[in-house]
Specification:
Elements: H1 2-31, H2 35-71, H3 75-87, H4 91-101, H5 105-125, H6 131-154
């Protein structure tokens, strides 16, 4: 499990760097006067977008496989693994694992939490949410996930 967590962190770091580079190139493309330079910058941006899409797909696959492993864990061991993911900041993977472990109405709650984390990540990447608001929303989602872990433990 540790190897997958490390790989997930590495891909997230690569994504952050590529997104930052894309942002800088986009700014350069906007301010460029020379059409050849604009064309070259747009070509680089398109290439970066393809790389970003590939990394996002790899990340999605790793998070899904990681959550499936956790979901198949028995009882408190699985819940502890989910809590460990939350503690290390792997909230999406924890939510996916928690979804796989839950039943009934709690699954609907998990779908809403997954939707909230996806919307939050989109707002962060589009830079449409302040850092403090993003931290607050992530904390609320984390708290709700921990509450569901407690409910799962009681069952």
């Amino acid at each position: 499990m540790y190897g997958k967590e490390q790989e997930i962190r590495t891909i997230k770091a690569q994504l952050d760097l590529l997104l930052e580079k894309k942002s800088q190139l986009s700014l350069s493309a906007i301010t460029a006067y020379d059409e050849e330079k604009k064309f070259a910058l747009k070509k680089q941006i398109k290439s970066l977008e393809e790389d970003i899409a590939t990394l996002r797909q790899q990340l999605r696959e790793l998070e899904e496989s990681s959550s499936q492993l956790i979901a198949t864990s028995q009882g408190n061991e699985g819940i502890d693994a989910i809590r460990a993911l939350i503690a290390t900041g792997e909230l999406k993977a924890a939510l996916a694992a928690l979804f796989a472990a839950l039943k009934g109405e709690d699954r609907n709650t998990m779908l809403l939490l997954q939707s909230r984390i996806n919307a939050l990540e989109k707002e962060i990447s589009n830079d449409t949410i302040s850092n403090s608001d993003a931290k607050l929303e992530r904390a609320k989602i984390t708290k709700a996930a921990l509450d569901l872990c407690d409910r799962l433990k009681e069952d």
